[in-house]
Amino acid sequence: MPAITEEDVMDTVLVDRDGDGIVTVTFNRPHKLNAFTKPMWGRMGDVFRELGADESVRCVVIRGAGERAFGPGNDISEFKTDRSNARQAKQYGVLMHGTIQALKSMPHPTIAMIHGICVGGGLEIAGLCNIRICGESSRFGAPIAKLGLVMAYQEIGALKELVGPGRALEILLEGRIMGSAEAERMGIVSRVVPDVQVTEEAMATAQRIAAGAPLVHRWHKKFLDRLADPVPLTDAELDEGFDCYDTDDFRVGYQAFLDKRKPKFTGR
Questions:
Q1: Rounded distance, CA 33 to CA 46, Å?
Q2: How many Cα atoms are found within 13 Å in the side-chain-facing hemisphere of 234?
Q3: Most buried of the four, 18, 138, 173, 260, by CB within 10 Å?
């Protein structure tokens, strides 16, 4: 088997910028339904950390190449070479969980554009996105018990936050694949549209987000994450809720409202 080059790895996770602050990240292994490999997890983590530190980003859209799958999870062919025992699996997990944390802590709004299959690791990545838009024929699940695999703490925590502990356990115990309507009822997805409208709806959503004040979006994400922590808020944290009044975006926003025109926010 030929060695995997750095160029090969770069091609498996593509990054496209539209010039207006919307970045599209594409998992690019359509011949494998975009199944994740160990090098892909590393590349994803690098991309998410880079985008998270880039203040010019307004919204990140994550998708799988083609229209057959967002992602079916990890490439099973790697189990013999990279996850055949606990020691190897732990090394794999360090890389995978670092990527999960990078996406979870992304300060910018994120959208999962879901075509087709979205199971296992694909479901974990999509579930970490703030808004999840899928097509009517999309399918979801986490049938890892059928492989004798455990969903580790870092992964199961994200599923619990998404659907609650009861639903999370139902998904993991049964391991069945569900349709888009049931996924929407469970809270796995935010919105279901006809298959042919998934791309259009996801990008229109990204454009609406990008038109808003980016600092406000980041604050809202930060505040909601913080409220999940039972530790009482400090006076400094409570005061942060008023910092927006000292930003240029606030002055731009309210003046545009008074002038009945669209605001042009700068993120300052």
A1: 22
A2: 3
A3: 138
